[in-house]
Specification:
The structure is a single chain. The chain is globular. The chain has an eight-stranded mixed sheet with strand order 3-2-1-4-5-6-7-8, sandwiched between helices. It has about 325 residues and is of the alpha/beta class. The protein contains twelve helices and eight strands. About 40% of the residues lie in helices and about 15% in strands. Helix 5 packs parallel to helix 6, helix 6 packs parallel to helix 7 and helix 7 packs across helix 12.
Length: about 325
């Protein structure tokens, strides 16, 4: 695990010299941003990438460069997956299981951020339902395809520091809705899901990690006004006034680097069950809610992870 990788490292830098020929990797959210870049970098190093997206036409257009740069036997196929609909999630998973082709890596990349209050097709709060429950059902339904030595990489965010999960009121039925509180809950859930998935599957050689890509300007921020975005950046910089570095946006290749690093470069035993950022395992921090570095202890709490798993099964009506 090279110490030379950090916040500025790109996908091509972390994958330099890595041959992924013969590897089959699933990436959700390949219609824009990090998902497209992750798929491009992996296919360029020989991986057979299965990309999942809600809008197939948009994904096909967005991934043209993925196919162009695929090398050493790498390639791309796209499957339909709408994480805000469990019917779509189950259909996509069932299709993959029926095909019976195993995966070396599953990267749960897709997500939404700071959406207005809404509900998924199944009545779940939009961010928790899409970012967590959709992936929870999808990944668990294809877990049988993850062969020994494979990995799950869940995209989380430093935004997990906005809020722990609320297992008593996950849909904001009794709590005033706040966009970033909801986002924080869903991103904490992404980490806790990785923690419990790792515990359940590591005996058979399957590991799971969560990653924070960094601050990147992609379609993820479509619901934020420029003023809201600037206020968020200002608040981060205010927290750094005591001597920390000022906030800097990452490029998309820099943002996708930690996903690629955790998926194909870092030793599995070093990242399994942990939260990673800037191509390293993050340290625990109990600082305030500002979104600098580090991971909050509640996001790695093993008992909390088990409780979220049980609550998620209850909500989706399915046991794994």
């Amino acid at each position: 695990m090279s110490a030379s990788f950090g916040a500025q490292s790109t996908t091509d830098e972390v994958l330099a010299g890595v041959d992924l020929s013969g590897k089959r990797i699933l990436v959700t959210g390949v219609s824009a941003g990090l998902g497209v870049e992750t798929a491009r970098a992996l296919a360029a190093h020989g991986a057979q990438v299965v990309g999942a997206a809600r809008d197939l036409a948009k994904a096909e257009a967005a991934t043209a460069e993925v196919r162009t740069q695929a090398a050493n036997g790498g390639g791309l196929e796209i499957v339909k997956l709408d994480l805000a609909s469990l019917a779509s999630v189950r259909a996509a998973a069932d299709g993959l299981v029926a095909a019976g082709k195993p995966f070396d890596v599953v990267i749960a990349n897709a997500g939404v951020m700071a959406t207005p209050f809404g509900k998924t097709a199944d009545g779940f709060e939009t961010q928790f339902g899409t970012n967590h429950l959709g992936h929870f059902v999808f990944v668990n339904r294809i877990a049988s395809l993850m062969k020994p030595g494979s990995r799950l990489v869940n995209l989380s965010s430093s935004g997990h520091r906005f809020s722990d999960v609320d297992l008593d009121d996950p849909n904001f039925d009794h709590t005033p809705y706040v966009e970033f509180t909801a986002y924080g809950r869903s991103k904490t859930a992404n980490i806790l899901f990785a923690v419990e998935f790792d515990r359940r599957h590591k005996a058979r050689g399957v590991r799971a990690a969560a990653v924070h890509p960094g601050g990147i300007q992609t379609e993820l921020g479509r619901y934020m006004t420029p003023a809201t975005m600037q206020a968020l950046v200002d608040s981060i910089n205010a927290s750094a006034a005591a001597g920390g570095p000022a906030f800097e946006w990452k490029t998309i290749p820099q943002g996708a680097a930690t996903s690629c690093w955790a998926a194909a470069v870092a030793p599995a035993e070093k990242v399994g069950g942990f939260y990673c950022e800037d191509c390293h395992v993050a340290e625990l921090t109990e600082a305030g809610p500002d979104i600098r570095g580090g991971v909050r202890a509640y996001a790695l709490d093993a008992e909390r992870a088990k409780a979220l798993w049980a609550k998620s099964e209850e909500m989706v009506g399915e046991r794994f």
